[in-house]
Amino acid sequence: MSSYDDEITKYEDKHRPQNQERIVEGFYINPVLRSGFDNTANEDRDPQEISDWWGRPFILEREFSHGDDSYHDYIKRLKSYNGDFEPESQESWEKYC
Description:
Blueprint: E1 23-24, E2 27-29, H1 47-53, E3 58-59, H2 71-81, H3 90-96
Parallel strand pairs: 2-3
Antiparallel strand pairs: 1-2
């Protein structure tokens, strides 16, 4: 077994492209993929999974969070990386947060 994980979860009907709920202009949005999908070597995959998903575009949405509760926290975090940085203005930070 050459997979990155020791155990490969079963490829089920719910994982197949035709059973996904959101498809926008040919892109599958947040498809239900089996656990370990991104960490399975191709030679360890179910042949049906390869047939279904090889070359098929999909998008997994992830919510971005920088973890800064305030502008002060933002400044403190960035200073810990580089004390010479030029921070954006508080107004600009609040606009995008």
